[in-house]
């Protein structure tokens, strides 16, 4: 009997070990101004590895094909093994990479720098494919749709470039610096600028279709879903995507630099009033709020029923997506302005702004 129990126990241990090996832990990656990129266990917040750069990180990481790409104030774009954090390659630009998160499409990684340039690099090797020079710093993340790269610059222009060659197709002048990354849906591009204007632009011609004026600079990047475009400024705006007519507005006590995220029929975003909000996507009615320890300017990511969001109190929070109850927190050594990214296919849900690496 003892022999049978021993064999049964051994089989159960083997089965448990096999199942554990077959289901690797989901990781969440987040950068901090303490110069580090962290890889954390998404369920517990336990640190798995950390990669130190030589400058602040305000560029959100992006995951593609087992590689994490992240830019730093030290002028470098890094490509890291997503499982181990080991450096695969780095590419040095002529200026800080501030806020311009990389975009990976068809084997090419695109990233902007405050040296005025948009770079296109081989995603596997880091070799330069082409470079396009604007007239001022690039803080926005590039967007690639149907072979065209769309990128805004502090020179006030939004550019449409050939994704393979960098050749300019058109440029639209918004008359004010562009910090916001663009969103594209149904042949229309949506973007805001630091002059408080929000535009809808025909992606084929670069012609303006409609615009509205808000009460503050727009650094929040928009999302488009179900015929509605959402973006933050002083308030969170929900507009008819075809006409620009306002459907609803949500006011907090301070501005929204955070870009909205749509998942579970809820809009998630943080505010400079130190609160993180969940709102009904159709009506703007508040469902819950979470009080953080400082202003929130980064976007969230939603995976496995959990919302992950960084904060200027140096922490990454994991919150229950339905209730806002805190699951865990991880403290870095500096402000967390970046958007986290979750590293397992099929677990990320929702509609995200282009600043987020979610789901890639």
UniProtKB/TrEMBL annotation:
SUPFAM superfamilies: Quinoprotein alcohol dehydrogenase-like (SSF50998). The keyword Ligase does not apply. Keywords: Signal. SMART domains: PQQ. InterPro entries: PQQ_b-propeller_rpt, PQQ_rpt_dom, Quinoprotein_ADH-like_sf, WD40/YVTN_repeat-like_dom_sf. Gene3D superfamilies: 2.40.128.630, YVTN repeat-like/Quinoprotein amine dehydrogenase. Residues 77-175, 235-333 form the Pyrrolo-quinoline quinone repeat domain. The keyword Plastid does not apply. This is PGF-CTERM sorting domain-containing protein. PANTHER family: CELL SURFACE PROTEIN, OUTER MEMBRANE PROTEIN ASSEMBLY FACTOR BAMB. It comes from Spirosoma telluris. Pfam families: PQQ_2. Residues 1-22 form the signal peptide.
């Amino acid at each position: 009997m003892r022999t049978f129990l021993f064999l049964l126990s051994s089989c159960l241990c083997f089965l448990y070990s096999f199942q554990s090996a077959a289901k690797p832990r989901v990781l969440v990656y987040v950068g901090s101004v303490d110069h580090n990129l962290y890889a954390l266990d998404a369920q517990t917040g336990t640190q798995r590895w950390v990669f130190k750069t030589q400058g602040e990180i305000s560029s959100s990481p992006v995951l593609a094909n087992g590689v994490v790409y992240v830019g730093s104030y030290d002028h470098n774009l890094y490509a890291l093994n997503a499982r181990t954090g080991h450096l695969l390659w780095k590419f040095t630009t002529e200026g800080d990479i501030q806020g311009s998160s990389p975009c990976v499409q068809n084997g090419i990684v695109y990233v902007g720098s405050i040296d005025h340039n948009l770079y296109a690099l081989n995603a596997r090797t880091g070799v330069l494919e082409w470079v396009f020079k604007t007239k001022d710093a690039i803080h926005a993340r590039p967007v690639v749709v149907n072979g065209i790269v769309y990128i805004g610059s502090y020179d006030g222009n939004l550019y449409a470039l050939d994704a393979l060659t960098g050749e300019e197709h058109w440029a639209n002048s918004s008359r004010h610096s562009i910090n916001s990354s663009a969103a594209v849906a149904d042949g229309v591009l949506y973007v805001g600028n630091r002059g408080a204007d929000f535009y809808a632009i025909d992606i084929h011609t670069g012609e303006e279709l409609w615009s509205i004026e808000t009460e503050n600079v727009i650094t929040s990047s928009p999302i488009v879903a179900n015929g509605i475009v959402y973006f933050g400024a002083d308030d969170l705006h929900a507009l008819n995507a075809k006409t620009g007519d306002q459907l609803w507005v949500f006011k907090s006590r301070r501005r929204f630099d955070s870009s909205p995220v749509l998942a579970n029929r809820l809009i998630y975003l943080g505010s400079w009033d130190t609160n993180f909000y969940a709102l009904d996507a159709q009506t703007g009615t508040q469902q819950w709020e979470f009080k953080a320890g400082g202003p929130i300017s980064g976007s969230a990511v939603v995976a496995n029923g959990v919302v992950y969001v960084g904060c200027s109190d140096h922490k990454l929070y994991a919150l229950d997506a339905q209730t806002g109850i805190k699951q865990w927190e991880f403290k870095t050594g500096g402000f967390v302005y970046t958007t986290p990214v979750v590293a397992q296919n099929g677990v990320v849900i929702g509609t995200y702004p282009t600043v987020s690496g979610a789901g890639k």
